[in-house]
Amino acid sequence: MDRRSGADGAGHAAGADAVTDEIGVLLATARRWRADGHGLALATVVKTWGSAPRRPGAMLLVRDDGLFEGSVSGGCVEGAVIAAAQLRIGKGGGELLRFGVASELAWEVGLACGGEIEVLVQALDGSGFPPELLERLEAARGAGEALSIGYNFQDGRATEGAAGDFVHRFDPPLRLMIVGAVHIAQALAPMAAALGHKVLIVDPRGAFAAGPRFTGLEVDARWPDEALAAWRPDSASAVVVLSHDPKLDDGALAAALRSDAFYVAALGSRKSHAARLERLRAMGFADEALARIEGPAGLPIGAANPAEIALSIAAGMVRAWRTRG
């Protein structure tokens, strides 16, 4: 039997947003399981070397009966970590687990190819990872704020703040606003959702977003500057303008540049982008601010159709997210 949280009917709702915001799913699952009276433990990847399959910060939530949510290794050490987590629920505190090629256990759990991993396992209680810290994290993400949590390896405790043997910065949930309900948007929206973004389509031109083309997606019929004012881009938000209409694009870009959005991009040729920059300069934006706009949008992969252009934009978003300061 699959022991993931959805196997017994306790899983989260279907849909791209539900399954790709890993931290959001884990927090919601922890809240539900705690309300049901279960003891819980958290496992967090704190260090990796070589071909370890997941980055530091990857998390696994384990219930007292072995049900779990999340992943620390893509499967290869999950069994050993879950067993340790179940024991930790009764003991309290935390412990650091090491798996690697020098360890006999590494061959048993699947890391013999050369990867090494350190995982901190903590009881979800006052002696390990305090439950109120999960509540604080959920509130911060809901408010579009980042929150840092420090982990102490010696006593296994987690505390809010940028101090500890390992510090995990939890960013707000990823979001993407697409301005312009065009063919490229049809391809980009599902790609972005698969990458973990909650997608909003903005287009005040009624016919563009009408019909089944964007079924299942949130569509905002306001002008982009109005929609952005309500949407309030944060440090985990991306804004991509695709309409080719200055009346839509310029207002959207101006609002995005005044925000903390990590990625701002605009579709169009180099000539049209140069003209766009001149219009934005006339609105008072300096070259430093204008340099934030990726134009033409996306990585230069020779894209020739809407799906390929969407792929290049999605790749540009990933690069911007993974290389941000």
TrEMBL record:
Domain XdhC Rossmann: 176-316
Sequence intervals crossing the membrane: none
Domain XdhC- CoxI: start-end pairs: 33-100
Xref: Gene3D superfamilies: NAD(P)-binding Rossmann-like Domain (3.40.50.720)
Protein name: XdhC family protein
Species name: Sandaracinobacter neustonicus
InterPro entries: MoCofactor_Util/Proc, NAD(P)-bd_dom_sf, XdhC_CoxI, XdhC_Rossmann_dom
UniProt-listed SUPFAM superfamilies: NAD(P)-binding Rossmann-fold domains (SSF51735)
